[in-house]
Amino acid sequence: MGFPKTRMRRLRNNDTMQRLVRETVLTVDNFVYPLFLCPGSNVKKPIESMKGCFHFSADMVAGEAAEIASLGIPAVLLFGVPEKKDDKGTRAWAEDGVVQQAIKVIRNTVPELLVITDVCLCAYTSSGHCGVIKNNKVDNDSTLELLAKMALSHAQAGADMVAPSDMMDGRVGFIRECLDKNDFSDTAIMAYSAKYASAFYGPFRDVADSAPAFGNRKSYQMDIANSRQAMREIELDIEEGADIVMVKPALCYLDVIREARQRFDVPIAAYNVSGEYMMINAACDAGYLDKKAGMLETLYSIKRAGADIIITYFAKEAAKVLKK
Is 104 tagged catalytic? Predict the structure, then answer.
């Protein structure tokens, strides 16, 4: 039956009717909030390139973690900026590293908060690349052991989940084997499985001081034109032991999120990255966009595409809106 017996507007007459028939439900339970750790003490420093975000020293992260938990956000994703870098990124697995210290602080003060840690060498190496450099190239296989050492150090500090973001081949299996051999079989892995060589990481690279000293990351991060290849990457990570798989960035790759959701019966995460976050903030600051509406429309689009988990710098703002 068509018009006039069928009138689609009947189900859009008012807010209550729209709530009743809403297909996609976005809740605070979907969010993971990223946090950036830095050396020193008593540090809470605004990040110029990312509005509303800060660098925290480990001793200052407890208060932020408590606020995040109070908003109902279930998890944080920790990134570290070390006090010094070297060719292998050795501070990445140091027992007194900034991430390792912060994990312990959060575990002791906000035990209900799920702690996820980014596992990658880019912020720790003098090259700014995600792995060991040999013959002026990132050497995949010699990087795997170092990533496993980093993941193990996070698990030993108390992380609930590790998230390898390096895009080295085989790293999920290598990390899973290392964790299992060291009695951390309960530590979950969220793999950055389809991580694209995107222009939208710009603000983050300023935050983490992780821009490559030479070249780019296109030899290991994914070509922005490919989607079938993303399905192979995801499938391989699942076979190697990934508990959750991720698509990054989110907005330019909603089609990849949708296809992953249709093909794989595992939780799908999507990273609403720094460039996407700041693009909306810049439009709002210029008066071109309503902040609340733009933020929610963005997050709903990611959830509607099929993401179960959304890693986003909007998490705290969105949680406050959704709880009303």
Answer: no
Looking at the domain assignment, is residue 245 inside a domain? yes
Asked whether residue 247 is assigned to any structural domain, the reply reads: yes
In whole angstroms, how far apart are CA 184 and each of 88, 105, 110, 227, 266?
24, 20, 21, 33, 21
Residue in 85, 88, 149, 195 annotated catalytic: 195
Report the domain count for the chain: 1
Kindly state whether residue 15 falls inside one of the protein's structural domains: no
Residues 6+ apart with CB under 8 A from 231: 259, 260, 263
Q: Is residue 217 part of a domain?
A: yes
Range of the domain at 137: 24-322
Q: How far is CA 221 from CA 118, 199, 290, 324, in A?
A: 16, 12, 33, 39
Catalytic residue among 85, 88, 149, 248: 248
CB 100 within 8 A of CB 154: yes
Q: What is the pLDDT of residues 141-176, one digit of tens each?
A: 999 999 999 999 999 999 999 999 999 999 999 999
Any idea what the CATH number is for the domain that residue 166 is in? 3.20.20.70
Nearest to 55 by CA among 181, 183, 254, 209: 209
137 is catalytic: no
Residues paired with 44 in a beta bridge: 56
CA dist 194 and 180 (Å) reads: 24
Span 237-248, pLDDT tens digits: 999 999 999 999
* 281, 313 Cβ separation under 8 angstroms: no
The model's pTM is: 0.95
Q: Strand 137-139 vs strand 132-134: parallel, antiparallel, or unpaired? A: antiparallel
Q: How many Å apart are CA 198 and CA 204, to the nearest integer?
A: 12
